[in-house]
Amino acid sequence: MNKQAKKALLFLLSIVMFFKRVLVGFFYLVGKGFSRVNGTYEKTIGPTLYQWFYTLQKQVRWMSMLKTSGMLGFFGRRSVLQIVLFLTLCIIMVPQTKLYTAERATQPGQNTLLYRLVGPGEQDFSLDELTVEQAVPVFEETDRNWRDGAISADQQNSANQLPPELDDIAAISVGGTAVTKPTILPGNQLPIQQESAASQSANRKSVIEYMVDSGDTIGVIAEAFHISQATILWANDLTARSYIRPGDTLKILPTDGLIHTVARGDTVSSLANTYDTESSKIIAFNNLQKDGSDIIIGENLIIPDGTKPVPKSTYTVPDSRPYTPLTNVAAPPPSISAPAGSGYLWPLGAHVITQYYGFQHTGLDISGGGTGTPIYAARGGTVKTSQCGYNGGYGCYVILDHGDGVNTLYGHASQLYVSAGETVTQGQTIAAMGNTGRSTGPHLHFEVRVNGVRTNPLKYIRY
């Protein structure tokens, strides 16, 4: 091959390489643009569109049942049978239809042979409307007992007048069973119940005792004495689940608040801070001096508008227990089906399983409690990943590395409380349940991965 042919061949090859680079650069730019569009789609409207599509697919899923299961399978479903039965009952029980309102010239069965043999013949026994007039009793002006709302058992008769029969009086006649309602004439008033002792003693400043009667409740008693239910509960060391019985004696305060027995070191200002009220109210209600320095140890003070402080619960972990205090809250008793020594805890403060592990589902979906329910570390380890976003449908998620190739994943969280690289202990709150990513409702998507392979989480945890 001569020198000119080689130069021509090299020139053609250089042209081909140039076009190749142009095409590679062009497709790189196009792919990068599509990648940016796809990333923007996943972060903005992608999850919403998928959620709408998934919801619509669940709503119209029953339409495909008719094709797959046939007519017998479709109408044999319990929900379909219930709907058909309901519609049938509505059709039968609809009132005021033509069936009931149609006027008939003849009675049913009038043209039968039996009616002709035993019937009334050609006589017409049509129904006629009868008007009954009721006489109004006449009363003398001197007889004021009836107009005063009283019923006299022995009324005196006038010379030429029979005693009127009072048909409107509520009574039971001898040998009869009819009871009629009394008519209250205009101008009369029903007896008004006198005010109770509780309403009359609105200005009292001392504690009284009330004996529980049959049918009483804390709410009824509180309303009768114009105080709150909490005041009665606090004064008698009761809780919302306590029972009261007829004959029990309850302390009734004169106002909303509680009773405090003065102890060493107590002052009016410290009591006001403790029970979230004002010092002036305590001084005025208990007739104390201006500065409240005349309180005596052992004296019972009424704290007006005070509220009982909520005690702070503390828990000390025994040295012999390897678990944190959240163990009792987050984990049920271990199962005999769990691997020996696995020690994995239930990862959520709720126990409703909405979807199990299967061929098309890579983990366990747990719901209940709503958004914000705490998510716990199933076992101690290191935070491998903790990030928010769409993340392939996981939303805000956390991955914990427990060693020996075992990782656990917690998806769809609303808040994350740990960061990558952080060490967590078993039962520690690492996130809050939410509805992020590809999700149709607040729940936790929990996965267990062994050497990168997803496995059934129920082999490690039980509820």
Automatic annotation (TrEMBL):
Single Gene Ontology MF annotation: metalloendopeptidase activity
List the residue ranges forming a coiled coil, or say none.
Answer: none
The record's section on SUPFAM superfamilies has: Duplicated hybrid motif (SSF51261)
Alphabetized InterPro entries for the sequence: Cell_wall_metabolism_enzyme, Dup_hybrid_motif, LysM, LysM_dom_sf, M23ase_b-sheet_dom
Q: Which domain of life is it from?
A: Bacteria
Q: Per the record's keyword annotation, is Transmembrane included, yes or no?
A: yes
Report the protein name in the record: LysM domain-containing protein
